Automatic annotation (TrEMBL):
GO biological process terms held by the UniProt record: DNA recombination; DNA repair
Lineage summary: Bacteria, Bacillati, Bacillota, Bacilli, Bacillales
Family: Belongs to the RuvA family.
A matching Pfam family: RuvA_C
Protein name: Holliday junction branch migration complex subunit RuvA
Free-text note on domains in this protein's UniProt record: Has three domains with a flexible linker between the domains II and III and assumes an 'L' shape. Domain III is highly mobile and contacts RuvB.
Keywords, sorted A to Z: ATP-binding, Cytoplasm, DNA damage, DNA recombination, DNA repair, DNA-binding, Helicase, Hydrolase, Nucleotide-binding
Length: 204
């Protein structure tokens, strides 16, 4: 099994990146490929090597935590790799885990591809299997599942801070917000806004 890859990103699409590892190009499907767009040199991508009858696929993540949560999610009946990618693209690991512990059906059903029955199955199957995924933070009240916001409220503010941490300037972020704000809807998560903004930033 391929657990991680390291190399420069040589190509990027909406659903995947191509990583050059010693002259071999690996196509790696990611929840948000654009998080790698700013990298100038080699990046480490934590992977899940998925084999099925008609394909061999690599799914990749910027952190070990996302990789491990992805593996937990695909163990749930009814959640395949594509749905698990959508879950991680729609909410941070901390928020997803918190929602499962709090049995927050409302939050979970706002994630891509998750209906009420699947959300209930996630809670039933995973609530007792997520030790180490933010449980200490929950116990001390350090984070909670975010409420959906509208317009340029706290979701964009949090997304903006995350983008600044990636190295983007205030001027770039003001410009990109002007481009995406009309497409921003009630309930869009921080991660959705970041992905939308990064796509615009990458496109120029």
């Amino acid at each position: 099994m391929i657990d991680f890859l390291r190399g420069p990103v040589v190509h990027l699409e909406n659903e995947y990146i191509v990583l050059d590892v010693q002259g071999v190009g690996y196509r790696v499907f990611c929840p948000n490929p654009f998080v790698f767009a700013k990298a100038d040199g080699p990046v480490t991508v934590y992977t899940h090597h998925h084999v099925r009858e008609d394909a061999i696929l690599l799914f990749g993540f910027p952190t070990r935590e996302e990789q491990q949560l992805f593996r937990k999610l695909i163990d749930v009946s009814g959640i395949g790799p594509k749905v698990a990618l959508g879950i991680l693209g729609g909410g941070t690991p901390d928020h997803v885990v918190t929602a499962i512990y709090q049995e927050n059906i409302t939050f979970l059903t706002k994630l891509p591809g998750i209906g009420k029955k699947t959300a209930q199955r996630m809670i039933l199957d995973l609530k007792d299997k997520l030790d180490g995924f933010g449980t200490a933070a929950m116990a001390t009240g350090l984070f909670a599942v975010p409420e959906p916001v509208e317009g340029d409220g706290s979701a964009w503010s949090e997304a903006r801070e995350g983008l600044k941490a990636l190295g983007y300037t205030d001027v770039e972020l003001d410009r990109v917000w002007h481009k995406i704000k009309d497409d921003t809807a009630f309930g869009d998560s921080v991660d959705i806004l970041m992905k939308r903004a990064l796509k615009q930033l990458y496109a120029g």
